């Protein structure tokens, strides 16, 4: 596996001209660019601008007539499988069925037929085409054929996927499905993705946009203008944040605030778990509606939803796992507050229920074909699945944190150190081959919730119980101030980079 930021491909003044006509249609003149691991790049431009020729140069399908192209992070020859190419137009072998087409690169590379078949079936599942395995190419629609072509590209586990106008001959709905599948394939392989397109909607789904005009490549951090006559009305913008170190700091601050604020309402103010859950769930619904209706990513919309899911997760978990027995009551109290006193399921049963729910969400998510990489989520369905997973994972994280702190014997600080150690192991696994980064991300995303829960308990619980006894109100106020400061910094930093109105997210 290549780590994020690794240089995969470099073009230096690369050119591909036709005789003495550098301005001929399809020519490329002195293109200089780099592709790094994790990149999602759109190359836009009208027909004849040189988009496809540049892609073919990157794939080593054609040779430059001037300049040079190198693959520092890849084997020199793309046929070895580290560069996957999805060409425009029909590319399936008509005499082979779908499974045989998907397995073809592996068979040609000498992989045993049964191993190649099993890998092909897995790749067809990734691109939501497993049911087509025994069909012939003539029986497929244009979109289905493109899905199979992507599965064939995925079979060799490429580190760079190059797709030449993958939606050009498809209707809007089929084109969107093909792009969903391309993202899923890139996520599965941990590959960078470069797509040529004339469609503003397709270009809007990729974080970087380059433009080809009369053979010249223009690199820009801002979305480039599209050719005259092409509407940008359907330009798709980002609504979820870039995953950086600042993201993880804000995530931990938000989940810790969710723990202390949830305890503030339920325990310090003695509203009880049930009433607090009802109030906080309504707060979650309001913040979620604001986020879903937003036109682009705004930290002042996104992070309040994270905080509200953490607060709801705190009280839902407590309501599920606890009851009105003396071990859960504060000194001098006889009840947990107004309403039902708790289900008393206990941490193991509560965790089992929540894990089952989370698995069900991820299974449904996988079957929809939506990407698991949050920076690439641009559809309403994808965002709805994302927030469902966040709500359940934050509730599960509270149960895990409470179990570690209260029942495992580790105490608050011991639990924080344990989860910190696990998170460091996940960081180390980024460099381990065949461990998908998207899997590591979601494990870390779930674990930061119990990290926040145990950290929050450590801040607020009495010294006699191993805490710092800072109180829920004071701790919540400090954490809220820190989170607001980080949100303000992120907002103004994004606007300074030109991404505010377009929700631009780069990596």
Task: Describe what this molecule looks like in 3D.
It is a single chain. The protein has 507 residues and is α/β, with parallel strands linked by helices. Helix content is 50%, strand content 11%. The protein is built from 14 helices and nine strands. A six-stranded mixed β-sheet has the order 5-6-7-3-8-9, sandwiched between helices. It has a three-stranded antiparallel β-sheet with strand order 2-1-4. The two termini are 17 Å apart.
State the order of secondary-structure elements, H for helix, E for strand: EEEHEEHHHEHEHEEHHHHHHHH
Strand arrangement across the biggest beta sheet: 5-6-7-3-8-9
Shape: elongated
**Chain-averaged pLDDT:** 77
Largest β sheet strand count, sense and barrel closure: 6 strands, mixed
What portion of the residues fall into strands of 2 or more residues?
Answer: 5-15%
Uncertain runs are 221-237, 497-507
Query: How many strand units?
Result: 9
Summarize the structure.
This protein has 507 residues and is an alpha/beta fold.
SSE topology sketch:
Elements: E1 7-16, E2 28-36, E3 40-44, H1 51-58, E4 66-70, E5 83-86, H2 98-108, H3 113-126, H4 142-154, E6 160-164, H5 172-189, E7 192-197, H6 200-204, E8 208-213, E9 216-220, H7 245-268, H8 273-293, H9 299-321, H10 347-368, H11 380-407, H12 411-429, H13 437-460, H14 472-496
Parallel strand pairs: 3-7, 3-8, 5-6, 6-7
Antiparallel strand pairs: 1-2, 1-4, 8-9
Helix pairs in contact: 2-3, 2-4, 3-4, 4-5, 7-8, 7-9, 7-13, 7-14, 8-9, 9-11, 10-11, 11-12, 11-13, 12-13
